[in-house]
Write a structure and sequence with these properties.
globular; 14 helices; alpha/beta; five-stranded parallel sheet; Rossmann fold; single chain; binds cytidine-5'-triphosphate; eight-stranded mixed sheet
């Protein structure tokens, strides 16, 4: 459960577009992450999704009319907006964007938004001609200039049957945007961090490669939590099936050599490097330019070592965090890596149990300190604990510099 959402009051305003069908899933994800969600709707939105759906999910009254706002638990939309940590309008139709941009307040959604001093996130969804229309673009510009976060829309098939720009962002991306906006002034604001994730692929020939089982989940969770805490986050990723976390700059690489180059470039002005990627230690010495044929009775591959990225980054002041995925003699191997690679923190885990799983049991190792085993936790909570440990290192470093 991402901590940045826990206990946060989010108001979700739904306006009348077909993309409203995605909003219950978005609300469900916010609730699962521990947020308190109130839904307000325009009457047109109720033609697409019933208020009862949201009421059942949130277990809170859903406001559809401005008059209805004065009933139920809240003393009106003014209170709902005033108490919110963030408001999201999804889908935001062209009409809703125009109303929001110009401060109209004649429906439950725009009224709540006008009375809400908290950050506003909008997820436009409409036909692509409507989206491209100068009036809509001007309204979006006006909203952006007031600090509103606009998520999407994306290119793809639209309800009109056409293909174009106008599809609402998916729930996952919207949750990412909410987390990013809530975390803007978090404990890592103004810090630049680099996280690597996933496997590398070392080509054998144009169609084959050597790789490993890393899914990238742990590295992506680490990048998301850094972003949740306000860090400017770069994610250097080997091939994975995971979507780019909202607000994170992702650089795709394939081989260990490409990852080494990207890490060298990206860490020049970073304060933290978290090397979570499962980098190949060896690569074929001479990859075949053509597909290797199976005529031979056997095939011997000659491998050569890749560069040890973590060990070779030696910039003073950079906090270096490594992972040790072991299968035996865990502490012995990990302590040796901590020392050999000059690390500030090493995250030890059992390679067999962790790769591809949604949970991890890790032990944190720091030079000169006793090992700190953590219980088995979901990877996003492991990521929170790792950043807690990194922040403690950054704080010590700052005190040291001040002296
Ligand atoms: N790593 C790296 N470059 C490599 C190999 C590993 O930067 N060529 C990093 C990993 O991202 C990880 C740490 O080093 O943070 C330890 O990786 P691991 O594979 O456990 O250790 P190795 O050094 O490869 O040692 P071994 O394979 O012998 O266990």
């Amino acid at each position: 459960m991402p901590r940045v959402l826990t206990g946060k009051r989010i108001v979700v305003g739904v306006t009348g577009g077909i993309a409203a069908y995605k909003v219950p899933e978005f609300v469900r994800r916010l609730l699962q992450a521990g947020a308190i969600v109130d839904v307000v709707m325009t009457p047109a939105a109720t033609d697409f999704v019933g208020p009862l759906t949201f009421q059942a999910l949130t277990r809170r009254p859903v406001q559809v009319t401005t008059v209805g706002a004065w009933q139920g638990e809240h003393a009106g939309h003014v209170t709902l907006g005033a108490e919110a940590d963030l408001m999201v309008v999804a889908p935001a139709t062209a009409d809703a964007l125009a109303r929001l941009a110009h401060g109209l307040a004649d429906d439950a959604v725009t009224l709540t938004a006008l009375a809400c001093p908290a950050p506003l996130v909008v997820a436009p969804a409409m036909d692509h001609h409507m989206f491209r229309h100068p009036a809509t673009q001007a309204n979006l510009e006006l909203l952006r200039s007031r600090g509103v976060t606009v998520v999407g829309p994306h290119h793809g098939p639209l309800a009109s049957g056409m293909v174009g720009e106008g599809r609402m962002a998916e729930p996952e991306e919207l949750v990412g945007a909410v987390r990013a906006v809530l975390g803007r002034s978090g404990s890592l604001r103004e810090r630049r961090v680099v996280v690597t994730a996933g496997p590398t692929r070392e080509p054998l020939d144009p169609v084959r490669f050597l790789s490993n089982h890393s899914s990238g989940k742990m590295g992506y969770a680490l990048a998301e939590v850094a972003r949740d805490r306000g860090a400017t986050t770069t994610l250097i990723s080997g091939p994975t099936c995971l979507p780019t976390p909202y607000g994170v700059r992702r650089i795709d690489v394939e081989t260990a050599a490409e990852m080494a180059r990207a890490v060298a470039t990206e860490t020049t002005d970073a304060e933290v490097l978290v090397m979570c990627a499962a980098v190949a230690d060896f690569r074929p010495r001479a990859p075949s330019p053509e597909k290797i044929k199976k005529q031979a009775a056997s095939l011997v591959l000659e491998l050569e070592p890749t560069e040890d990225i973590l060990a070779s980054v030696r910039r003073p002041g950079l906090v270096k965090v490594g992972f040790a995925a072991e299968t035996e003699r865990f502490l012995e191997h990990a302590l040796e890596k901590l020392q050999r690679k000059g690390l500030d923190l090493l995250v030890l885990n059992d390679a067999r149990a962790t790769m591809g799983a949604d949970t991890a049991q890790v032990t944190l190792l720091r030079p000169g300190a006793p090992p700190e085993p953590l219980p088995e936790l979901p990877k996003d909570e492991v990521a929170e604990r790792i950043w807690d440990a990194i922040e403690a290192l950054l704080a010590v470093r700052k005190t040291g510099e001040a002296r």
